[in-house]
Amino acid sequence: MSGETFYxxxxxxxxxxxxxxxxxxxxAKDVQWHESPQGRNAVLIDETTGMNAKFFGAMITEIPxxxxxxxxxHTFEAAAFxxxxxxxxxxxxxxxxxxxxxxxxxxxxxPHRHINRDPEKRARILQIEAWPIPIFMGISRLDQFxxxxxxxxx
Length: 154
Hints:
Layout: H1 6-16, E1 33-36, E2 39-45, E3 57-63, E4 67-68, E5 72-74, E6 78-84, E7 86-91, E8 94-99, E9 103-106, E10 112-116, E11 123-129, H2 132-137, E12 142-144, E13 149-150
Antiparallel strand pairs: 1-2, 2-3, 3-11, 4-13, 5-12, 6-9, 6-11, 7-8, 7-10
């Protein structure tokens, strides 16, 4: 605004950051699924959905029976809560099995993938990820090593 001093402008802009103008709810009927090298995902919390959190994002990943997500790594940390199914996570050189109700952590810069070990039922995991701040800072990176595909079930 003309006539504003730097200090007044700074105070005005700071105050504007305390006024959230995004969505407060996304109805189930409005959730949009998409395919990517990671597999099938529904992004819930991100500026692309209008639910614009500043410190975290969230999505649901669905893994069809006997399939796995793409092997990848990113510069932000993430945690996942298993909504349904049973599977295996490969995180770096560690292998962990998970099932409905479990929570697991994916550290930044460590390759990982989600594997659905059930040959008949889908798995769904809710992922909470810290991508907004690294994107804003210009330091976010996602490296895709392999696409989603069939899993070798043992």
